[in-house]
């Protein structure tokens, strides 16, 4: 028996939506959310369309559960947040790193580890799956995760005076340079007036 996309995305027990909407939102919003999540997984070099479609639906289901209680948040934002939570949580499990407190760093380094370990090429079917995972996959991910991390060093920075260039020179002498400039231009203008009068008599 074939299932429609709407039935696949509608959480069990959820109230029926009017035609053209899901979880209280227009289908156009969910289409945009679907495209955004799909593009993200494709950017991670997930090429298996069936796998990508399954992962997108998994993310959208989570977003739709929130959509009913957070009507002010756009569907694309809900989907992006749930996608990030899902991926970061999976990184935390695979890499045995705490997800709380450094989720942005974990997400960034985790994505780098994916590429360095060639996970999309060798273990694409393991992405976002619960454990246990193949030992070779876990080892490659953890080793490349450590390689992807920056080497932190304590640095001491001492304040240095700002070099303001000619502005500092002008202001350090008060208004004298400005006075000289005004007098110089006034004399030049006077000379032009005299020359004009002498040549037009």
Give a structural overview.
The chain is an all-alpha fold and 201 residues long. It has two domains: 144 residues, no CATH class; 29 residues. It has nine helices and two strands. It has a two-stranded antiparallel ribbon. A hairpin with a 2-residue loop joins strand 1 and strand 2. Helix 4 crosses helix 5 and helix 5 packs across helix 7. The protein is elongated, with a radius of gyration of 32 Å. The termini are far apart. About 2% of the residues have low confidence.
Poorly predicted regions are 151-155
Radius of gyration: 32 Å
Q: How much is the average pLDDT?
A: 78
Specify the structural class: mainly alpha
Number of helices: 9
Characteristics:
single chain, 201 residues, mainly alpha, 2 domains, two-stranded antiparallel sheet, 2% strand
Brief summary of the model shown:
The protein has about 200 residues and is mainly α.
Q: How would you summarize the topology of this molecule?
A:
Elements: H1 5-9, E1 21-22, E2 25-26, H2 27-43, H3 49-67, H4 75-95, H5 103-116, H6 119-122, H7 135-148, H8 166-172, H9 176-199
Antiparallel strand pairs: 1-2
Helix pairs in contact: 2-3, 2-4, 3-4, 4-5, 5-7
